[in-house]
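Narrative summary of target 7.
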Amino acid sequence: MDKSTIPANAQARAEHSARAMWAEDNASRGLGMEIRRVAPGEAELAMTVRPDMTNGHGICHGGFIFTLADSTFAFACNSHGPHAVAYQCAVTFIRPVRGGTVLTAQAIERSRSGRNGIYDVTVRDGEGTVVAEFRGHARSIGGNWIPGEGKTEGPPQERNR
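Modeled conformation, tokenized:
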């Protein structure tokens, strides 16, 4: 492996990891999400609430808000390079969201030690009002988004089954 292909600093590693993950993330792309920013231990994604994302109350189905937060969490916890997945998540819905609203989710790493990490994600509407809070616990599963740093490169295969 040519050392020149390995990202030289933490920000470059985060950006490389995000590009590699995004290329395989059919769910986030299919829901119209966009990556606005990544940094080591952080990520920001946005998504517009489409009419087909609203429930019988005429508001955004909570599953879509959860999915935006979960995707943002995924980009934050994979930003260091090693493949990581959620093993526990919780969300609190604070305010209803109408169709057409652009939601922005911001994830921040609170703790990272060994194979485990804890991340908080705040989801806001277009006016900056908090509509949901999410906490995710991540576990590194082997493999790495950075070429030459893990047993596998690219998307993780099913493991630990």
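The chain is about 20% helix and 40% strand.
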